[in-house]
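ENTRY TYPE: protein
WANTED: fold as tokens:
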Amino acid sequence: MIELPAPSDEVVLRWDSLGGLRTAGDPGGAALLVHADGRFSARGAKLDGPRRTGRLTAEQLRSLLVRIVVNEKFASLDGADIAARIRQSAAARGELWNVMDGGVTRIEVNLPKVRHTVELANLLDARDRFPDIEPLKHLVAVRRLLVEVLQTVQ
């Protein structure tokens, strides 16, 4: 189904919420980092606070990645395509879709046979305004899975 790397410090899943002072290369700013050995960390509760941590079992990690890569078709998602569909849908309704400062969601999967990144601005607003866009539904579902992991951090 999917191939996992050997348990290690390698990051297999990264979720960033970019904007403001956060950039893609800032490990302290990553909303979630999941390592090949199941360890994961999330931003600290305070701006400069230590990252909060947790651990997934091997089965939990495999299940999470299968749900993201297989069930939600992550490797087929394209942020530019989703954004184009949003603009097209907005135009068809006579609306404007301007991305000013809603932040950018960036999700990256780094597995031996699946290396893929998706970026989309204003994901939550898009979810609320364009619930019928199929690839957007999948990206929102991936985010929801990551939020479930975040809810287990200590």
In short: DSSP finds four helices and six strands in the chain. Strands lie at 11-18, 32-35, 39-42, 52-55, 104-110, 115-121. Helices lie at 58-71, 79-92, 123-129, 134-150. The radius of gyration is 16 Å.
